[in-house]
Design a protein that fits this description.
Shape: elongated
Strand content: 35-45%
Order of helices and strands: EEEEEE
Number of strands: 6
Oligomer: single chain
Distance between the termini: 18 Å
Largest sheet: 4 strands, antiparallel
Strand order of the largest sheet: 5-3-2-6
């Protein structure tokens, strides 16, 4: 994950949504809450996912912490 801001991103939520081969049906996903993404920096995160089959693709979405 990349933080383009000059201040740290504290407790962001990283959600992952996984899709089937047609990319029209969500078949699973997961989320995690890293402690911090440093200012103008990068952080690697690992998200465990649960799916109802083998996903064709998964997309990560980041939202700021509260």
């Amino acid at each position: 994950m990349t933080n383009p801001k000059a201040e740290p991103l504290k407790d962001p939520r990283v959600a992952v949504v996984c899709y089937d081969a047609s990319k029209t049906k969500i078949i699973g996903g997961g989320s995690t809450y890293p402690d911090l993404i440093p200012p103008s920096g990068k952080a690697s995160v690992e998200v465990s996912t649960i799916t109802t089959g083998k996903p064709a693709s998964c997309v990560a979405y980041v939202s700021p912490g509260i």
